[in-house]
Amino acid sequence: MPLSPEQQSEIDAQRAETRPTRRVVSEGMEGHLYTAYPVLDHGFVRVVDYMGDDAAITQAARVSYGKGTKSVQNDEGLIRYLMRHWHSTPFEMCEVKLHVKLPVFVARQWIRHRTANVNEYSARYSILDREFYIPAPEHLAAQSVVNNQGRGEALEGEEAERVLRYLRDDAMRAYDHYEEMIGQDGQQGLARELARMNLPANIYTQWYWKVDLHNLLHFLRLRADAHAQYEIRVYAEELCKIVADWVPFAYKAFEDYRMGGATLSSGALDCVRRMIKGEEVTQENSGMSKGEWREFEAALKG
Questions:
Q1: 58, 68 Cβ separation under 8 angstroms
Q2: 53 among annotated binding-site residues
Q3: Which SS3 state, helix, strand or coil, does residue 36 take?
Q4: 46: annotated binding-site residue?
Q5: pLDDT at 68 over 60
């Protein structure tokens, strides 16, 4: 389970506390504070703290003395303009601090986004829990035959059962040896910083991850995409729900211009203009490679 009864009790106590503040608050985000949302079999995401809201973005853009709000319509229009024209700095005025529990192999993908402040649970000082990510059977897939970093069809029957058995047995055996190496009666015990190297990449770790909105949206654009690996995508999808409540104007603009939009090269844009004029455009007369043409057709067809 993602949280023990003691951990849930600690979170409940945090949620029960309220304090008066002069800070700008987002009512949508207030509802998410401290709540741990389950992800995968033992993971979770929870908001520990945040700064700013939609008005903080427009305040920074206008460099105003107050909240920066002229009207709701003006604020939404300005945010959409900023997003549309890639003016990123105002979005950096909002920040969020997250507590995330995730498998180590997902953390190693996640950490490639080097635009955040991270503090990870230390296995040099503490003993990791016996918790491993074991995929649900429907997520056990073969290697894709068309994509070197993707999955193909799901494994079935005896093969799927064998793979699941290996994953469970190997993880448990590695943890048994980890515990034995750390200390046994009459033995000195191996240092924790060395014993941890025998643990598999599907063991769970935890960290605090603090990031500004601009870089968080970049993370979501890549990791909430349908082509992202499932195990990190489900974390991104949970974060999308939180961000949509935190900064609804900014998130809607992000959905429209980043997640749902498409970037066209000058050559592709020229092809669109030719099509509008009634000209028949094919891959052969487009000036694009076959790969570019496939992506161009996919963008037009939606």
A1: yes
A2: no
A3: strand
A4: no
A5: no
